Amino acid sequence: MRDGIYEFIEGYLSDMFASVTGDIFNSTLTESAIGLSETSDRRFVIILGLAGQYKGRIILETSSNTSDILLQRMNFGEPVLTLQEQNLFLGELGNMVGGKFITALNNSFRGLELRLTPPIVFSGENLSVITPEIESIVRYFSTDCGIVRIDIGIEGVKPWLNLENF
Amino acid sequence: MQPLRVLVIDDSPFVYKAMKRAVEAHGHSVIGHAENGQMGLELISQLKPDIITLDVTMPIMDGLQVLQRLDHEKIDKVIMISAMGDMELLKQAKEYGVRFFLNKPFQPEDVIHAINEILTGER
User: Fold this and answer.
1) Helix, strand, coil % in chain A, rounded to nearest 5
2) Which residue in B14, B16, B55, B88 has the most chain A C-beta atoms within 10 A of its own C-beta, making it the best mutation to test that interface?
């Protein structure tokens, strides 16, 4: 086990997302230095709240093009046409990514008792989602569906927090 | 093996489709889909399924609340499903008598394995 939550998240994030993309999308994954295109006209954003001994949130973000490919893979090759169905599928994707994440944290740090709030999914042009006063760990992952941004922030969790006696 | 009748209680259309594909590929059938626990209880009573797949987190009534309202005979048919698989949740499900738990996302063979285990382990 790592020394602290921050280090744990940094070390685990890639494996966690890779296991979900591998199972659902049959897609390999690499961490990307390239972010989402600034010219992308439309984005999909999934937000899950974290509750329990710590509070925070997980944000997943993709371009509209990437989202279409992800949704089609999730829907066994068929396009997901209605916005309502798109939101339900993306919400479930968020649940699976978030579920893997907090399961790993809860099992590694006794007493955290983290829970996920139901996902919020929204889409729009030129979106910018920020959470003041929470330090985030942000990573971009390249899949063969496109690039996905993951942003995880937990209140009070900083690189220097010592949880040895938690 | 006789074809089995499976009820899916899950608010996710993705899980419903994945479950349907998995069980139908092995000759079984999905006889109903409930998007929350309350509807699930009604369908359990009406349809009398051989296997019940039950999500934990759902609107109106969650999976653990459904378990509170089921007798042991029906809980024996339950495969619990959740995106979360932490020890506390597994412990709670086990205390209700659930024997099989699948983490989302799951593979079709995981579902079939759990179904076969339920059949061979019938009390």
Assistant:
1) 35, 25, 40
2) B14
